[in-house]
Write a structure and sequence with these properties.
Elements lengths: L8 E7 L4 E9 L11 E6 L23 H21 L4 E4 L4 H4 L10 H11 L3 E24 L5 E23 L4 E19 L2 H6 L4 H20 L2 E8 L6 H11 L3 H14 L3 H18 L2 H15 L2 H23 L57
Parallel strand pairs: 3-4, 3-5
Antiparallel strand pairs: 1-2, 2-8, 5-6, 6-7
Length: 400
């Protein structure tokens, strides 16, 4: 059965000072393409080597660390959990962590690959065709504190100096991964230095207060270990990601009315308004905005060709960078879609079927991006609500 992979669900509608926007969930291709006969993966931890406390990533030109073995053990466990979850969340694979005694995993030395005899035995027991192995894990964490002096004016107009301290904990985790195709006896992916990092920043009236607000080293290593596992899963498996799309909701009264329909999750009503405005709008600029919004509605439904057609019309009528940029992003999505189709084995190489959404159950909202204990980190996303139903859209020529 042929289907394409696309933007699936509108997650939230956000009104900003410049323009309203929505968030979509789209399936991105992986960097690594798996053989068609590999469907189930066993995930094993080979990083529990005998020399685990000796800086095994020194062979990778990594930083020699003084981190506690306990922190690395917990981080290693979180990395395993995250890579399994990421593979399970991908529509491409079924995956499970498999515990194998260290001796059987032949993990006394990092550079020693898992033998095919052992890999075959693991897959026979686990019912898998491939193995993802965490081959090595090492972490490095540092804390820096800066003294900052600012001048404030009190209610009497007098200036006074205020001293605060800013503490930063930066934690870096370096992992190594191998992806074994057990059926064809090939190593599909071999990453020797997969680097993940996160920085927390806190302030306080004293050095001890600022440092005390930072997450403990063990929690930080665990969190970054999770990032490492999740990012490696995205490397080898098509992954659902969140993207933000803006649209036009001001100027002409019908654009404002369409925005109200979107906020009410009535996309069919919004599409009808935009379609009529495109065909009967008073000027090119208004019709171009309507075309832009219809492109977004088509993308939301998963009809990328129709979306690209509307975006081209918008770029011609509006002649601005925003419309041209959206058209370019849809071109990239069309290219990604073909790659995802091939990775999902939904079409033959080079073949593109009519766009039809791939159904996907609602998943829990992604994390907020905050690190352990809610400390401020370097990035994050707001959790979205469940997706609404999807309406139909028409192209500039009225085609369904």
């Amino acid at each position: 059965m042929s289907r394409s992979i696309l933007a699936l669900a509108t997650l939230t509608v956000v009104a900003t000072a410049c323009s309203p926007s929505i968030r979509l969930q789209v399936l991105e291709p992986s960097l690594v393409t798996s053989p068609p006969d590999v469907h189930r993966l066993a995930v094993v931890d080979r990083s529990r080597a005998k020399n685990v406390g000796e800086g095994i990533l020194g062979a990778l030109e990594s930083i020699a660390t003084g981190e506690g073995i306990g922190a690395d053990n917990e981080g290693r466990s979180r990395a395993m959990t995250a890579v399994v979850r990421g593979l399970q969340d991908s529509p491409r694979f079924d995956a499970a962590e498999v515990f194998v005694p260290r001796k059987e995993l032949e993990s006394s030395l990092f550079d020693k690959e898992l033998s095919w005899a052992t890999a075959k035995r693991i897959c026979k027991d686990a019912g898998c065709q491939g193995i993802v192995a965490l081959e090595a894990f090492d972490s490095d964490s540092s804390v820096n504190v800066d003294r900052r002096v600012t001048t404030e004016t009190d209610s009497d107009g007098k200036e006074r100096q205020v001293v605060t301290f800013e503490a930063q904990r930066r934690t870096n985790v370096v992992t190594a991964w191998r992806y074994y195709d057990v059926v064809n006896k090939q190593i599909i992916d071999d990453v020797r230095g997969w680097d993940s990092a996160y920085t927390w920043t806190e302030t306080g009236p004293s050095v001890s207060a600022a440092r005390g607000a930072l997450p403990p080293q063990g929690d930080a290593v665990s969190y970054v270990g999770s990032l490492a596992g999740a990012s490696y899963a995205r490397r080898i498996a098509p992954t659902w990601v969140w993207v933000t799309r803006s649209y036009y909701g001001g100027g002409h009264p019908d654009l404002k009315l369409g925005k109200n329909h979107v906020r009410a999750m009535d996309w069919a009503g919004a599409v009808d308004i935009w379609d009529d405005l495109y065909r009967n709008g008073p000027d090119a600029k208004t019709r171009g905005k309507a075309a832009f919004n219809l492109a977004l509605a088509a993308e939301r439904e998963g009809d990328l060709r129709n979306a690209a057609s509307w975006a081209t019309e918008a770029a011609v009528l509006l002649a601005n960078g925003r419309a041209r940029g959206y058209r370019a992003s849809l071109e990239r999505r069309l290219a990604d879609q073909l790659k995802v189709q091939q990775q999902m084995e939904l079409t033959a190489p080079g073949q593109v079927e009519e766009d039809r959404p791939l159904a996907k159950p609602h998943k829990p909202a992604p994390p907020s991006g905050r690190g352990p204990a809610g400390n401020r980190g370097t990035s994050g996303d707001a959790p979205p609500p469940p997706p609404p139903p999807k309406p139909g859209t028409r192209g500039p020529t009225g085609n369904r």
